[in-house]
Every structure is written in structure tokens, then in C-alpha cells.
Amino acid sequence: MRAIRYHEFGDPSVLELETVERLSPDADEVLVATRAIGVNPCDTLRRQGLWGDELPLIPGSDVAGVVERVGERVTRFDVGDRVFGTIPHLNVSGARGDRQGTYAEFVVAREDRLARLPDDVGFDVGAGLGLVGITAWRALLHFGDLEPGQTCLVHGGSGGVGHVAVQLAATLGATVVATASADHAPTVAELGADVVLDYRRDDLRDAVTDAASGGVDVVLDHMLGEYAQFDIDVSAYGGTVVAIGGNYDSPVIEDLTAAIGKDLTIQPMDMFNEPNIDVVLERLAHLLDVGRLTVEVARTYDLGDAAEAQRAVVEDSFPGKLVLVP
Ligand SMILES: NC(=O)c1ccc[n+]([C@@H]2O[C@H](COP(=O)([O-])OP(=O)(O)OC[C@H]3O[C@@H](n4cnc5c(N)ncnc54)[C@H](OP(=O)(O)O)[C@@H]3O)[C@@H](O)[C@H]2O)c1
């Protein structure tokens, strides 16, 4: 099969289109004929060697496609099922995860990494949802305990995680304040944000405070190094700041007393620690099915153009997700 692999860490040019052996599914695994592959910023961190992966590696966590074969212990899927999911492959949290990344024509995945893709939903949408959907779900629902009527601040509301988080928070009945580049504000508003603020505004802190009367109950922060003190300042008493990324080694907290006075929780999290990926995927699939959730697919690329897609995912400004097509 054709797959993208890299044999050394480095810039996008290390990604090579190769012909590699197709794996057979183990007893609890499914072989998926890939139709679309989501591209995530973490794919580029791994490519640079920041996760200490063993090489060579087929990158990628997100996939959508059609079940080609099932292992003998697989109970949830049959050949021909349309599926999507996300695969914590290799060296995640120090343990070996699944056997293969997703930038390939065929992917073996444990059945509990997948869910059925609703009939009317495109493979590109399914491929874009897995990783960011679980991240947003875990952040807002598992760690944020977001409730209807509360106020949620989503930094980077047009991003992969952000645009799903905006939709989940709106569906839940929260008041959603999001930040985004001005160009993408209309998209973020259409997805359900009550207020969208340009993150480049000099008076952003005051604008969020005005928009969130009584303070923000749950913050989804993808750049804690930049926004730690900001989050503390705009939070309500008893609020939660869920931190999913961004310079954890240098968050600038100038006034910790404000956080103490508010009994704040600052909660870093990693979506790959989610023990029930399949359960969350099934709930996300339901929301896709009933039209309460979608994925903005900004661009698709041929599998062979993975290097360009990985460059773009960190350098370009676009709403939603970039997707590869094998
Ligand atoms: N912990 C976890 O489990 C987990 C899971 C998923 C992702 N992550 C991390 O979370 C981050 C976001 O992931 P993603 O997939 O959503 O990335 P993404 O699709 O690239 O989105 C990033 C968003 O941040 C916006 N942004 C850029 N500079 C900003 C600023 N100064 N203030 C506010 N927003 C800004 C971007 O807008 P413009 O492009 O318009 O500037 C873009 O909308 C990444 O660092 C990723 O590695 C962590």
C-alpha cells in the first residue's frame, strides 16, 4: 500500500511517499480502507522528534474509511461499515499504543478507536473530527463540567479543537465567547458562538469581561503560556481553565492571588489519555447525525502532498481542518 513515512526527524521534507507492507488486523483490530485522513498540529510535533517516537513511523492519528477486514474478536463492526476514529499510535504516555499511524491507504486500528460514521456525513468530515472532537469533549465535559447557562470561553474558536468546542458548548446551552482572527469571525458565529472577539485586540481582556457577565465558568485554552494570567483574570469564582497546549514550561502568572481568591482549577489534559475513545466518538457521531455538529474542512490534499499539508497546518490561517485523501 502507499503510505507516508519518515526515517528521521526534521522539517516537512522528511515525509516520504513509500510503498509499504499492509498490516493484517489482530483479533481485536479492524483493517480500514482509508478514504480521508485528518491532519493535526501534533503530527508535526512528532515529526520533529518531540515525542520520542521510534522510527520509521507512519504519522497521523485521524482516519475515516470503510471496514475491509475484522479480527475474530471484533464485535462492533462488519466488513463494509463506514467508520471514523482516532488512533493513539506508538509511545503515547510512555506506553506503546496502536501499531500504525493513519497517513496510509489502509490502517489497522483497535475497534475501540472507531465509531460508525453516519450515512450522510462525508469521510472528510469524519476524518477531521476524531482527535479534536475528543479533545473538546474531554475538556468541556469531563474536566470543565460545563453546564447549560454557564459561560464558556474558547480561545482560537476557528481552530480544529476550537470550532468543535464552540459547537459543543452551544449545543449544551452555554453562553459561548470565542476568540478568532477577524477573517474567521463569521464562521465561528455561524457555528454557535454568541460573541466572537478578534484575539489581536489590545482590549481583549476587557472585551471578554464585558461579554461574560459574572465571569467565565470554563476556559478552553490552547496557549496557556500566553493566556494563563488572562484566564485567571476573566474567570468566575469556582471556574475551570482547561489547558490543552502551548508552552507549559513558561505560563506567565503574575498574580496567583486572583486564582486563589476564586478557588480556580487549572487543568492540563491530553486527549490520548481518554480511556473510552469509542464512547466519546459514538456521541460525536450522534451529534453529526442529528446535525448539531459539523467539521469545517478548509482544504483537502492528496496523500502525496502530506508535507505541504503539515506545513500549512501550523503556518496558515484557516477555519477548521485540513484533510488528506489517499
Ligand atoms: N492536549 C491535547 O490533548 C491536545 C489535543 C489537540 C490539540 N492540542 C493542541 O492544541 C493546540 C490547538 O490545536 P488545533 O488542532 O485546534 O490547532 P489549529 O487548528 O491550528 O488551531 C489553532 C487556532 O489558534 C488560533 N490562534 C493563533 N494564535 C492565537 C492567539 N495568539 N490567540 C488565540 N488564538 C490564536 C489560530 O487562528 P489563526 O490561524 O487564524 O491565527 C487557530 O484558529 C495545538 O497546540 C495542539 O497541539 C492539544
From TrEMBL:
SMART domains associated with the record: PKS_ER
All residue ranges annotated as the Enoyl reductase (ER) domain in the record: 10-324
Q: Where is the signal peptide?
A: none
Please verify whether the record's keywords include Ribonucleoprotein: no
Organism this protein belongs to: Halomarina halobia
Put simply, this protein is called Zinc-binding alcohol dehydrogenase family protein
Checking Pfam families in the record gives: ADH_N, ADH_zinc_N
NADP listed as a keyword: yes
MF GO annotations: adenyl nucleotide binding; anion binding; oxidoreductase activity, acting on the CH-OH group of donors, NAD or NADP as acceptor
Q: Which UniProt keywords apply?
A: NADP
Biological process (GO) annotations?
small molecule metabolic process
Give the source's domain of life in one word.
Archaea
